[in-house]
Each structure stands twice: as C-alpha cells, then as structure tokens.
UniProtKB/TrEMBL annotation:
SUPFAM superfamilies: RNI-like (SSF52047). It comes from the Eukaryota. Residues 37-117 form the CARMIL pleckstrin homology domain. Gene3D superfamilies: 6.10.140.1850, Pleckstrin-homology domain (PH domain)/Phosphotyrosine-binding domain (PTB) (2.30.29.30), Ribonuclease Inhibitor (3.80.10.10). This is CARMIL pleckstrin homology domain-containing protein.
Length: 354
C-alpha cells in the first residue's frame, strides 16, 4: 500500500466495508488469455478471505471478486506478472514491482493456511520463474511452518468458519466464534455440541459443521433431541468423508432417516476413518441404514469401541447383517466394549438373530 495515498486507501476501505482491507496494489489487468493486450489500470485489493478488482476511476467500484477458496492454481509468468485460475474466471495482471507480487502470494498463502490448517497452500504455485522459485517456495514453507506452530484457538476453527461464511455469502455469527474461542478453548473441550447453537438458523449451524470438516482440534460431535435439517445432515456426511480426527459421532433422537445412514456409510467408504464410537439411537434408520453402515464399519482398521443402535426400527434382517460383521471381523472382538441394540421390537427373538 506504499504507492496508494491515504485518501484512496480510506475510500477503498469504505467501499469494501465491513471487510477489512489488508493490501491494495496497483495493477495492469490483462484481457483473458491474452497477456499482450491490456484492459487498463486497476487495483487488486486483498481482504482476509477475498480478493477484489477495483476500478481506478472515481467513484471507485468493484469490477470482480473471488474467494481464495476458489483458487485452483497460481501461475507466475514473470517477476511482475501473475495469473490466478479460479472456479469462475482466469485473472491475469501485472504489478509494478516484484515485491508486490511476493506480498500478494504471501497474503493469499497465509490466509489459505489459516482456513485449512492441515493443508499446504504452496502447492497451488504451478508455474514459477527460475528467478523466483527458491524465494517463493521458501517463503510459503516458512508461512506454513509458522502457522503450524501457532494455530488459532481450537485449531483455527473460527478462521475456517469466517472464510466459509464469506465464501457462501452468509452472515458471520459472532456467538459461534466467541463460544469456541473462549469457552471451548479455555476448557479444552474437544466435543462440539450442536445443542450449544440450537438457537441459530439451520443454515448457520450447517456452516459451523462445515468448518469442522477441516479442523483437527475437535474429535467428537454430539447432539441429542434436536432435529437436524437437511443442510446440517449434508455437512455431517461431508465431514465424515473429510475429517482425519473425528473419533466419536453421537446423534441421538435427531430425526435422522434411512437416507442419512446410507449417505453416512458412503462417506465412510471415501477415506480411512478414525471413528471409534457411533450413536444413532432414536433415529429411524431401519434395516437399509443398518445394513449399509454394517458393510462399512467392518473396514475400520481399529474396529469400534462404542456402538448404539437402540430404537432405530431395525428388524432381524438388519440385525443379522450387523451381527455377522461383528462376529466375523477380528478387530471387534478386542475393540468393542459397549453395544446397545435395545428397543428394536422383535429383532432379537428369532433364529436369524443368533
């Protein structure tokens, strides 16, 4: 921002409120895929989680914007020319000095690392001139190392949540951030209780669950007597397909049906799960859901420590499949310490249930 007057900086900040402006850089924007043809001078403005192309003419206006979450690759064509490939556009521009280019890369790399603490944003650099390779790769590695050693409260949950709110154009709920950064963090709670946020709209709670998908701090998800909307259920299954830290999932009397159990099973199939405890009691997942889950829990490397399928409308058919898995897989004989199949009328009284 050294080349921008204070008055102009203030105008940009006012234009983008409530987003906090972190960097304003004069650029020469290139027409798409034609680096030799230029469409005029602009500003590239970077906030915490988003970039903007702003006109230089008064009154200032935003020509286009992109979330850092949309970036699929970064190609550096020279010491001053950069091209960003996003989901919706290709943005190519030249900066005045190579320090500006480094500042842009540094800011976006640090932001992405805060959003996805377990990621390596430096891998987005697909094309880098030899003159810059060593310095840029060293810089991104240093940023990642620093943020790895100094993560935000609860594994940086609030940064991830804030970025997802921005990406989805949803309001940022400060009570979620406050509870996690203070109550959860101070007490070292690793169990995220959905009921703590039951007063929120379901879409707001769904975004909080989405943030858990990229979080290594929380190892348990808990909910009881709260009907979970389709949005929240979708994010829970996404979490199961992504999380490498989730050990316990307890969703008791949450209005879940067969389709959730089937989707949950499909999510478990996508990667090696760390789950050790499952509680779906009080949800009508029925035989189809129990069978789908049974076919997937047998692939858990360490088996299950806790399994509760009480009151799930299961018959002898579902129980037969589950019992076959539990008895035939060696890991369950040493891992399973709690099994609750109660209140599934008739499921335990036939020969199929042996």
């Amino acid at each position: 921002m050294n080349y921008i007057s204070q008055t102009l900086q203030d105008q940009v900040s006012e234009l983008l409120k409530p987003h906090r402006v972190c960097l304003v850089t004069p650029v020469l924007l290139h027409q798409s895929n034609q680096s030799c043809r230029r469409s005029g001078s602009k500003f590239v403005v970077l906030s915490l989680w988003r970039g903007y192309v702003v006109t230089k003419k008064q009154p200032l206006r935003v020509e286009s914007t992109f979330s850092y979450l949309e970036i699929s690759s970064i190609n550096i064509h020279s010491l001053t020319q950069i091209e960003l490939e996003t989901d919706g556009q290709s943005l190519s521009f030249s900066v005045l000095h190579d320090e500006d280019l480094v500042a842009i890369i540094s800011h976006m790399t640090a932001s992405l690392k805060r959003i996805f603490p377990d990621s390596s944003p430096g891998k987005l650099l697909k094309s880098v001139p030899l003159d810059l390779q060593e310095s840029l790769l060293t810089m991104t590695a240093v940023i990642e190392e620093q943020l790895n050693s100094q993560p935000g409260p609860c594994g940086g949950f609030s940064d991830t949540y804030a970025a997802l709110c921005d990406f989805n154009e949803m309001p940022f709920r400060e009570e979620i951030q406050w509870d996690v950064d203070n109550i959860y963090y101070i007490h070292n709670w690793r169990k995220f209780n959905l009921q703590d946020f039951s007063h929120l709209e379901s879409r707001d709670l769904a975004l909080a669950v989405a943030a858990l998908s990229f979080n290594q701090w929380f190892t348990k998800i808990y909910c009881k007597d709260l009907k979970l909307s389709a949005d929240i259920q979708q994010q829970l299954t996404f979490l199961l397909s992504k999380s490498s830290s989730l050990e316990e999932l307890s969703l008791e009397d949450c209005g879940l049906k067969v389709d959730f159990a089937v989707k949950m099973a499909a999510a478990l199939q996508q990667h090696t799960s760390t789950l050790q405890a499952i509680n779906l009691s009080g949800n009508s997942v029925e035989d189809k859901g129990v069978i789908a889950l049974s076919q997937e829990i047998q692939h858990l490397n360490e088996g299950l420590r806790f399994l509760s399928l009480s009151r799930v409308s299961m018959s002898t058919k579902g129980l037969g499949c589950l019992s076959q898995v539990l008895s035939s897989c060696q890991q369950f004989s040493t891992s399973l310490t709690h099994l609750d199949l109660s209140c599934n009328p008739g499921s335990l009284v036939t020969e199929d249930a042996t």
